[in-house]
Design a protein that fits this description.
globular; mainly alpha
């Protein structure tokens, strides 16, 4: 799994756990829905850490909670 896929999957997982839509997440995070959709659909291949922080703020979690998953711990090395 690559990093962008892990980020996308984590956002979708957290929305599912909270039973909120992407549009609701965008509202909670003070983002236009298109910005989050760009991450989810691969148009944004390198979301900034500030973007992820704002998503975390909208979900009322820390960056540590966002990244503290086996998927992030087991990511393949990006530099070959």
């Amino acid at each position: 799994m690559d990093t962008i896929t892990a980020v996308r999957d984590r956002i979708l997982e957290l929305c599912g756990q909270r039973n909120i839509s992407i549009h609701k997440l965008a509202t909670l995070s003070a983002f236009p829905p298109s910005s989050i959709k760009n991450i989810l659909y691969g148009k944004s291949q390198n979301p900034k850490i500030l973007t992820i922080k704002l998503i975390c703020d909208g979900l009322d979690i820390t960056l540590g909670e966002f990244f503290s998953t086996p998927e992030f711990d087991n990511l393949e090395q990006e530099i070959q």
